[in-house]
Amino acid sequence: MKKFFALLLVGFVATSYAQPATVVNIESGKISGKTTDDGAILSYKGIPFAEPPVGDLRWRAPRPVKAWQGIKECTRFSASPMQSPPVPFSMWSEEFLIPKEPIGEDCLYLNVWTAAKSDNKKRPVLVWIYGGGFRSGGSACPIYDGEAMARKGIIFVSINYRVGIFGFFAHPGLSADGEKSGNFGLLDQIAALQWVKKNIAAFGGDPEQVTIAGQSAGSMSVNALVASPLAKGLFSKAIGQSGANFTRGNPEKSVAEMEIGRSFQTLGASSLFELRKISSEELFKKGNGNYRPYIDGHVLPAHIADIYAQGKQNKVGLLTGWNQDEGLMMTPMKNAVDYKADLAKRFGEKAAALLSVYPGDTDATASQSQLDLSRDQVFGLHNYIWGLMQDKQKLSAYVYRFTRIVPATGEYKKFKAFHTGEVPYAYNNLSFVNRPWEEADHQLANMMSDYWVNFIKTGNPNGKGLPNWPLFNEKERQTLYFDVKSFAAPMKDFPQLELLKEAMVPSK
């Protein structure tokens, strides 16, 4: 009997000092997370995947994170990248923005949601890359929560990357300082994918079944990662929502250096050494510029359009599309006369053909055409060409159009199927957005997220109980239209896109 009680006491002590059930071992050490109230999902927030890019590490490629002792608590989001404080504007209410704080340069962290209770489940993985025009955004945005997708059997990972002057910096001193590229935001994304490759098995994920996904600048990032030789072998599928670059719009390195170089004339610093001493707040305030990926000869050895045209991109399956009402008008709407004059000035001999599909007979039709043309120039044309490229190279592509008018009240009613409006549907996160949702919206969110999960799992979005989503090809151009009643049909406005392609895509 004494022996029995002694064993019982040993068992009690061992249990009392056992690690929490959420602890996992990753390459750099042990971390702990949280479980949902029902115990079904584990989440880990604020996992460092690189050293903080501060001080002398500002404007350097991400360095591997240093190992730590003990258990690092990863239960809260890290700081969002350095950017302007989030303020609702235009179509974006606060649910579509990062939290008000914290914001800072120490931002290279990622988050994981998983339902796997052991490291041998081999679940497929989604890595989410946010949008924000390469100037803003962060993984802590409410509509990027990963719990709903994890409940459908995948592992959801969201990552941070540097933006603005901190993330896309072109300066002649970089090469002399040992840096091969100033596309630090893209290098951050690649470093996060390398982390996933090495560590996701500890969360029950399959490192050979990784899908990268993003929206807007996040989709442009996905487009660039598929083109980049540095990302080879880090993912097997791609989801691009409203964003790509097939018009050679990314500047050459020399042009980017000149553009950004003008931003530093007011800073009184002539070298990287001096620039690294400037506070992040002052640098952000005074270092204005058009920051975006550029052709650096390293991350992007050539223009993305040329890499794809030559078949040198990473060969992966694709799910892509755009929204019906995401024309972004940053300047006042023109009347019919001025619209037609502007079209002639911009497109020359191509203007008459474009006017036939983007008409301007009256001020009202000219207004709608400007919105449609903005949508197609910035988003639609690029994702359309991406689908065509896939078909040409005998790679799978599934193309969608989101046409659901997002329910809204007040000023938000006018934005309809707006830019970013599809994100909470695709990731089943309507609960994070304060809108007058109808039952049809919840059904659509469940359907869209099922398609996304199926694609992540198998490379084919189709599944039981879902309307058939055909492969996209140049002949039929079958597109899945997401609305109250979702259906597949030949793309309705491809003639406009074909004319726009002829006008906007230059010969090399």
How much is the average pLDDT?
Answer: 93
Helical segment tally?
16
* Unreliable stretches covering 5 or more consecutive residues: 1-19
Which of globular, elongated, flat, extended, rod-shaped describes the shape?
A: globular
Radius of gyration: 24 Å
* Pattern of helices and strands: HEEEEEEEHEHHHEHEHHHHEHHHEHHEEH
Count of beta strands: 14
Oligomeric state of the chains present here: single chain
Note the topology.
Layout: H1 2-16, E1 24-26, E2 29-32, E3 34-35, E4 42-48, E5 71-73, E6 109-114, E7 123-129, H2 147-150, E8 155-159, H3 164-167, H4 173-176, H5 184-199, E9 205-215, H6 217-227, E10 237-241, H7 253-261, H8 272-275, H9 280-286, H10 304-309, E11 317-323, H11 336-347, H12 351-357, H13 363-392, E12 397-402, H14 423-426, H15 439-458, E13 478-482, E14 487-490, H16 494-504
Parallel strand pairs: 2-5, 7-8, 7-9, 9-10, 10-11, 11-12, 12-13
Antiparallel strand pairs: 1-2, 3-4, 4-6, 6-8, 13-14
Helix pairs in contact: 11-12, 11-13, 12-16, 13-16
Fold and architecture overview:
The chain starts with a helix and ends with a helix. The protein has helices at 2-16, 147-150, 164-167, 173-176, 184-199, 217-227, 253-261, 272-275, 280-286, 304-309, 336-347, 351-357, 363-392, 423-426, 439-458, 494-504, and strands at 24-26, 29-32, 34-35, 42-48, 71-73, 109-114, 123-129, 155-159, 205-215, 237-241, 317-323, 397-402, 478-482, 487-490. The model is unreliable at 1-19 (pLDDT under 50). It is α/β, with parallel strands linked by helices. Strands 3-4-6-8-7-9-10-11-12-13-14 form an eleven-stranded mixed sheet, sandwiched between helices. Helices cover 32% and strands 15% of the residues. The chain has 16 helices and 14 strands.
